[in-house]
Write a structure and sequence with these properties.
Blueprint: E1 2-5, H1 10-25, E2 31-33, H2 34-40, E3 46-48, E4 61-65, H3 67-80, E5 84-88, E6 98-99, H4 103-111, E7 116-120, E8 123-129, E9 132-139, E10 142-147, E11 154-160, E12 163-170, E13 172-176, H5 184-187, E14 200-205, E15 215-217, E16 223-227, E17 234-238, E18 242-246, E19 251-256, E20 261-265, H6 271-279, H7 288-299, E21 308-309, E22 315-316
Parallel strand pairs: 1-2, 1-4, 2-3, 4-5, 5-6
Antiparallel strand pairs: 7-20, 8-9, 8-19, 10-13, 10-17, 11-12, 11-16, 13-14, 14-15, 16-19, 17-18, 21-22
Helix pairs in contact: 1-4
């Protein structure tokens, strides 16, 4: 296992030490990154450089921190196809599978291999200048073309599948995956897209235009954003981590990524429940079809066994997951671009 931690947080360091101790007791080899080994201070671990080699042949990359730490770990895990399992020690933590209080159970689930793996769509990004490729990169959440000078608007033209769509004077344009729909794109007014929906989002930021609504396009589409001549220079940000300067005339092409990012899942929690929990959405008054069936049975004086919905929404018997409770979860905040969520 490769253990990646936000060593700037004491809690993450303590959690990493506990995880390494438990994995070692179970006879599992542990790797840590060279820049984190000294802070974690555990013996008997393999210290690896922060490259794709660190995740190669590892069964799981365990990430202790917020979504920013998980996005950093994704750089290492994606080339190797190694699943990521995040323990949220940050704020919202949409990409994380477990919370800090579930750490012991999470490690046990990894040790006993009681987890599933799901694939998340990525996007590949190509930057062209004067017809030549100036750089390539990728993103799990989003690629954003942003203005580099605060006092002036950015002038761009958007293209979908080789056809011009619209000019925008704006602060930027977000091109996001469904996974990224709850991150920067959400903050910019974009829609939330369920992870199993394969699509790309195009969300203008503070555009001064009549047509500047968020758009959802086919995963087979190619989206291009061109920085118009005479406009201030721009900058490309991918997942708030990788950046590239964009002079006037630069062209950014975004398409579905050739390789997905794999996430390890211990719980088959419906995405709706995740939204309710992470955003603290009020669900007071919800009855649901199963509760309605129980109410109808009671009013008729008939004693019936009311089935519960399993994690996948199907009817289940004993041991099936209960539906969302009629209560309001604790609220949580949303981070801005480039911050841990």
């Amino acid at each position: 296992m490769l253990v990646v931690a936000h060593t700037g947080r004491r809690e993450a360091v303590r959690s990493a030490q506990l995880v390494i101790e438990r994995l070692s007791e179970a006879g599992i080899g542990v790797r840590v990154l060279a820049g984190e080994a000294e802070d974690i201070g555990c013996s008997g671990v393999e210290v690896m450089p922060p490259s794709a080699e660190a995740a190669a042949d590892a069964e799981v990359v365990m990430v202790l921190g917020g979504d920013g730490t998980l996005l950093r770990a994704a750089d290492l895990a994606k080339p190797a196809g190694t699943p990521l399992l995040g323990v949220n020690l940050g704020h919202v933590g949409f990409l994380a599978e477990a919370e800090r209080e579930d750490l012991t159970a999470t490690v046990e689930g990894v040790v006993t291999r009681r987890y599933d793996v799901e694939e998340r769509m990525t996007i590949d990004v190509t930057v062209r200048r004067n017809g030549s490729i100036a750089g390539t990169t990728w993103a799990l959440n989003e690629a954003t073309v942003e203005k580099a000078e605060r006092e002036r608007m950015l002038e761009v033209v958007a293209e979908i599948d080789g056809r011009p769509l619209s000019n925008w004077g704006c602060d930027g344009v977000v091109c996001a995956t469904p996974t990224g729909s709850t991150a920067y794109a959400f903050s910019a007014g974009g829609p939330i897209v369920w992870p199993e929906v394969e699509a790309m989002l195009v969300v203008p930021i503070s555009a001064h235009a009549l047509f500047a609504r968020p758009m959802v396009v086919s995963p087979r589409s190619v989206v291009a954003i061109e920085v118009l001549p005479g406009t201030p220079r721009a900058v490309l940000w991918c997942d708030g981590r990788r950046t590239l300067d964009l002079p006037p005339g630069a062209r950014v092409e975004v398409r579905r990524g050739a390789e997905p990012v794999r996430l390890a899942r211990l719980h088959l929690t419906p995405f709706t429940d995740r939204l309710v929990t992470k955003f603290g959405l009020p669900v007071t008054g919800w009855r649901g079809r199963f509760r309605q069936a129980a109410s109808d049975a009671a009013s008729e004086g008939v004693e019936r066994a009311v089935p519960q919905a399993g994690a996948d929404g199907a009817l289940g018997g004993a041991g099936a997951a209960a539906p969302v409770r009629d209560q309001t979860p604790a609220a949580s905040g949303e981070a801005g671009p480039g911050q841990e969520r």
